[in-house]
Amino acid sequence: MKKIGDNGSKKAEFLELNNTDVDPKHFQPIINAMEQVVLNGTGRSAQIDSISLCGKTGTVENKSFNDHSVFIAFAPKENPQIAIAVYVEYGTWGGTWAAPIASVMIEQYLNKKLSEKGIKKKNSIESAIILSKKSDFSF
Length: 139
Hints:
The chain is of the alpha+beta class. The chain has one domain (21-127): Beta-lactamase. It has helices at 12-15, 27-40, 98-111, 116-127; strands spanning 54-60, 68-75, 82-88. Strand 2 (68-75) and strand 3 form a beta hairpin. Helix 3 packs across helix 4. The model has no long low-confidence stretch (mean pLDDT 89).
């Protein structure tokens, strides 16, 4: 059962199934493309061993300083158990900070622990100075 909030209360409005008018035949190409974003595209920093993650990076333009980093994702690809959106102010590009942060959160949620790679990624994120001009970190 889904729970909302700290006290675990269930809000009916979030438990109600909402259908879309989009024909389901259009879903699989989008899901496959989101998987490719993580496998071969701008979301490679979100890769998690043994978890098929689907995601989309985003960059929100900011004319006064670094752009903002955005990543939306769900996992696993088949029978998703988690969906997440991460927004990092001044984080530059979606794959720079939001994608690796999302992957650490997804791995912890699905596996109840982090792999050695996940721990290294988490430690790199925790020690990073994101607000430096055009920060970039390779995971």
